[in-house]
């Protein structure tokens, strides 16, 4: 009840945003009101000057002195009020107390002016417009809480009526007019207040949803950037450093799937609460999904991360939950310009740090010079891939695959190389992973297939014997494009028979996007391409893959051969895989063969095909013929 009365009187505690909104509206009104008053009063002063100079009206020197003073007083106070309003609107002065003092003082001066001027008019039987205008200005154009506006209006009308009535007793008509005007002003002032307040509340709501994350109530990405930018600016001007910590919840997706969205949302809200609790002086925001960011003072961010991990893990059910955090420490922003763009770069760095430990047991990683170099390299690769393709810096090296029985090359594997004019020869280990990470790998793969098709048509077709070429596909090719149609299109363009183009799919591809993959594999089969399973044994789902998919060739990952001569279990395992291939109707192919012993052993086990440095490293097409001739000689011997 008391609260309701307070709201009615406009004296309840207001949200700072609503208060600022209403104050700003008042200051905007002040701009126009004061300009108008300055103009009118200046004109009045000119009128007095004319009276003095030309004696147009008869006014006593006393009248002229008093009025001149009043006009000047009103002009000066209007100018001061106007200057204050301009400073306020530019954000230079934002003190609530000072604003109220200015407003109050201006209001008092205006009302006293109005009362005095109109009193003089009234006793001469003239209209009292000056008084009405001033009260209207300060209580209806400027908005006050109802309690204050009603007090101002009542006091002004009371004093004015009392003075006038004392001098010349008011008629009934004057009483009625005064009373109705008084009521009208009270109503207008209250109406204006309500209207302004509801606008402020609506705006505050919009402001909230555009700056806050609905789910967790903390800042959203856009507003975080704005707020963090300001904090950085302030810190850099004091030469202070800050820690930007990017958080990622490990296994959030699994948790969501296991317990449903409601629980997943609860976990996110909880994470936000934990972050606010552990970093009370920080700016906490949710960027997207389970990605949070905190800008905090630099004191021991690792300890903070540890505490977040401990608190969050308490929450888990039977899904393992953990966090990963990437930390970027600024050195007082000496190197970076402050501003929105820089905060984006810094967020990127902390995210990069967290990504770098995605597959490690670490929970926390600082963005250091080493990571910075890696980031630069990745950016280089991603930003140059299109140009590299266009300008022919992407090349294909071919590595022969040997038929173990005959010792002759029976196929070639196409391997991508990037011959960069600035960085020299880059190996796939450097760029494949990056292109996959930035989802650009399909561009490279399609280009490699095109080079292979062109080589098959222009070079290999002129050779005595044309060897089929296997190309490597990334698991992302199945997501990023219709890879089977791309291959068909290129094979048609270069008139390549499909048995010359074989497709290597890595084991890891098969545990992702089953639908797209199934469709593409079917299409490859329909087009009569042989399908090879690459890197068998490198992942965890090897045998499941064999159960679900059929392949023509199975490439045993070269990691297996590392056990040769070192591990007694190696031989029976290798033997069993080769036997398994026979039973499933697949050709076995061992990659990474580096020594004669390995080769002899594999032949003994019945391995169909071998590939490795023992026979040849991958070579460019102009060296291939010579390499193949040597292999014929060595292998056959
Ligand atoms: P992969 O398909 O398993 O290719 C075999 C890798 O082993 C090649 O490395 C090859 O140079 C290397 N290698 C061959 N014989 C030996 C050996 O005896 N000893 C050792 N230590 N290594 C040997 P490379 O060319 O660096 O390629 C690495 C991986 O990059 C490839 O593994 C493949 O997964 C990927 N890759 C290469 N080219 C492409 C491509 O055009 N597209 C896609 N998506 N991936 C590619
Ligand atoms: Mg391969
Ligand atoms: Mg392989």
Structure description:
This protein is of the alpha/beta class and 637 residues long. The protein folds into three domains: 2-211; 221-367, Alpha-Beta Plaits, CATH 3.30.70.270; 393-629, Alpha-Beta Barrel (TIM Barrel), CATH 3.20.20. It is 60% helix and 14% strand. Helix 2 (16-54) packs across helix 7 and helix 17 (483-493) packs parallel to helix 18 (514-526). The longest helix is centred in the first third of the chain and has 40 residues, at 172-211. It is elongated. It starts with a helix and ends with a helix. Residues 333-341 and 633-637 have low confidence and may be disordered. Bound molecules: ligand C2E and magnesium ion (2 copies).
Q: Helix- and strand-based class?
A: alpha/beta
- Proportion of residues in β-strands: 5-15%
Please give the number of β-strands: 15
Overall mean confidence score, pLDDT: 89
Shape: elongated
List the helices and strands and how they pair.
Blueprint: H1 2-9, H2 16-54, H3 61-89, H4 96-123, H5 129-141, H6 146-167, H7 172-211, H8 221-237, E1 243-250, H9 252-259, H10 261-278, E2 283-288, E3 291-296, H11 301-313, E4 322-329, H12 340-356, E5 364-366, H13 369-390, E6 394-403, E7 408-420, E8 424-426, H14 428-437, H15 441-458, E9 469-473, H16 477-480, H17 483-493, E10 501-506, H18 514-526, E11 531-536, H19 542-548, E12 553-556, H20 558-561, H21 570-583, E13 587-591, H22 596-605, E14 609-611, E15 619-620, H23 621-636
Parallel strand pairs: 4-5, 7-9, 9-10, 10-11, 11-12, 12-13, 13-14
Antiparallel strand pairs: 1-3, 1-4, 2-3, 6-7, 6-14, 6-15, 7-8
Helix pairs in contact: 2-3, 2-7, 3-4, 4-5, 4-6, 5-6, 5-7, 6-7, 8-12, 9-10, 10-11, 15-17, 17-18
Bound molecules: ligand C2E and magnesium ion (MG) (2 copies).
